[in-house]
């Protein structure tokens, strides 16, 4: 299956590792915050008492803001976003980062003007992936049906969120590690851009 096979009007992107070169060393972040190596960071924080959760969330925010200042675009990502924006596609971000971190990252890679701020959803704006809530929120705002949209990301949480929302899914990664979850698979954003252009 390729982009040309799908009636896509809405594109929802993960950020870190998809539109940007992955910056997060999750093992190092877990060590810095004292989170067990095998645990999901946000799930762990969500189970803590409020005072401890607030303290660690603030430290996580600081880590992410520091990383945002160093972010670089993934190969082909900025060109892909500009192409889709020029074609009038609805564009959204669904990230487990903070919205302000996402906006800073989009600004740094030169595409922040392609996204309406309300269409950039972080972990404080909606339930974090793999929950589909953010996708439902974007589709409602765009007044699009789920089959008109695709969730694009580099990890299974992105694909699981897309599946749960009933929209199409696209894995951007050299390896197709989750073939049962991905409708489309491309190695990078350059390849996805080529499919968009060939679809006309």
Automatic annotation (TrEMBL):
UniProt cross-references to InterPro entries, sorted A to Z: HAD-like_sf, HAD-SF_hydro_IA, HAD_2, HAD_sf
Alphabetical keyword list: Hydrolase
UniProt GO MF annotations: hydrolase activity
Domain of life: Bacteria
Cofactor: Mg(2+)
Coiled-coil region: none
Protein name listed in UniProt: HAD-IA family hydrolase
Gene source species: Halopseudomonas formosensis
